[in-house]
């Protein structure tokens, strides 16, 4: 069985996964010169695969399902239990359309405008010579704009705590021990908050615009015409808010990219919209965020001389596909210009998943992510000047999720 498929060395590879982090799959497919290999993770047999062809197979709903793929520990921190990420078939598509309906280009633009307004409003607090940590500021700004846009009341005195909770859920996904438990507590707190808000909307106590995310989640009906129960509506509302706050990670990496490639600043300064977008795409490709995805084999099939048996867990390498030298020339160079002539196949550039978002599990929030990143870069380059004091900007590929260690400290901030 699977005699031609390379097997990762050792009885169990969980420790190597913790040590190699984002590079766990890439290191091995490079070593074996093969798109896939078998490993054992936490006692179960797993097929790990990487690259564009692997992504096409992974996103075939006839071959894979998401139900049963996500460990409970990830559901109890990052995504919420039984949420959209675990659904399949018609029920998934129905739920997905709800998310897609909220992430329209006008809404992407509105969020980007809110972001610019919030960044501008932060300047007076920063002027006067003190230091700020960009990652922390970004968490607060994004939490304010996410709640404002979604129609959720949020007092200024609550912002830090709520932003911290959303951020803790994300930080927990690859963690064990205290970071994991912090994420669980943060989720329990945020779900309680969201259940209360949804109940207030349903009872008419809280009036909210009909085109808001809060209204949409509170009154969404499933395929059988039943309203989501309060807990499910709360979980899915968090699935809109938390990832907006998570854009703080890409914002922090954007600042690092600007710092490491000052020549890019001039081009952003010239107001070239296309260049700004290319820069953002290269940040999403180059820097690590989502490491890999999991799905279970729906029915037996053979691909690449490998027998995929019903129920097997399969991991698709996101980080490695975005650094695959068959797709990307010199993948370990940061070069926004590579996106100039870029024509995506939907399975080659997958920082937020692959395929068509309306038909599969690909992230519905890419437009929002790109527009908020563009507004923030415009702000950092064109609206303020600042210094970058000595600090530890290194980031570890073993830690998932990772971030520059200092969070990107800025000082001597002044309006331009
Ligand atoms: C799904 C990454 C931002 C909402 C996903 C997936 C990834 C991802 C890797 C899984 C794709 C799959 O399972 O095939 C990211 C990253 C983001 C981001 C790195 C940047 C911070 C957003 C934003 C939103 C969002 C801004 C909404 C406002 C979702 C939802 C799903 C999802 C609801 C589940 C889709 C489904 O299962 O059908 N995202 N995302 N994400 N994302 Fe994002």
UniProtKB/TrEMBL annotation:
Binding residues annotated for heme, in chain numbering: 363
CDD domains reported for this sequence: CYP152
Keyword line: Heme, Iron, Metal-binding, Oxidoreductase
GO MF, one annotated term: heme binding
Superkingdom to which the source organism belongs: Bacteria
Cofactor needs: heme
Alphabetized InterPro entries for the sequence: Cyt_P450, Cyt_P450_E_grp-I, Cyt_P450_sf, Cytochrome_P450_3A
Signal peptide: none
PANTHER family: CYTOCHROME P450 FAMILY 3, FATTY-ACID PEROXYGENASE
Name recorded for this polypeptide: Cytochrome P450
Biological source species: Kyrpidia spormannii
